[in-house]
UniProtKB/TrEMBL annotation:
Protein name: QNR71 protein
Region listing for Disordered, in residue ranges: 1-22
Pfam families the UniProt entry points to: PKAT_KLD (PF20433)
Parts forming coiled coils: none
One Gene Ontology molecular-function label: integrin binding
UniProt record, GO biological process: cell adhesion
This protein's GO CC annotations: plasma membrane
Lineage: Eukaryota, Metazoa, Chordata, Craniata, Vertebrata
């Protein structure tokens, strides 16, 4: 039930009341509740600092490979996901997620394959148990070369 307080404070006072169907008795519940909160830093920022096309021989040219060099700040990530979308970043074409091991500095290289030439939106997400951070870029893949 809720009843207004008797002083000039307009906020209601809340009291827990339950009916007991066996005898018409009321059960009042009072007590203290305690909870712990742990504050963690999390992954604060992700940056794609370099995109490099991997040169392949003519017989290997079915897929274009691109290396993305990524840095981050904050806690160290435990997994990476790459979403390849159309140039507007609206229609997803592929999603690849992998666990990673980063020991002391957040600098990693992610290699992804592109089946055909074109312009793509790349979203790279680094995550750990408590946080995620995202970096995006547009890339043009031209049959084994990227810009």
């Amino acid at each position: 039930t809720t009843r207004p307080s008797s002083d000039s404070d307009p906020s209601p006072t809340v009291q827990s009341l339950e009916d007991n169907p066996d005898g018409g008795c009321h059960i009042y519940r009072n007590g203290y509740y305690e909870s712990g909160i742990a504050v963690v830093e999390g992954i604060l920022e992700v940056n794609i600092i370099q995109m490099t096309s991997i040169q392949m021989t003519e017989s290997q040219a079915e897929n274009s490979l691109v290396d993305f060099v990524v840095t981050c700040q904050g806690s160290l990530p435990t997994d990476v996901c790459t979403v390849v979308s159309d140039p507007t970043c609206q229609v997803s074409k592929s999603v690849v997620c992998n666990p990673i091991v980063v020991t002391d500095e957040c600098l990693l290289t992610i290699r992804r394959a592109f089946e055909e030439p074109g312009t793509y939106c790349i979203n790279i997400t680094l995550g750990d148990d408590t946080s995620q951070a995202l970096a995006s870029a547009l890339i043009s893949v031209n049959g084994g070369e990227s810009t």
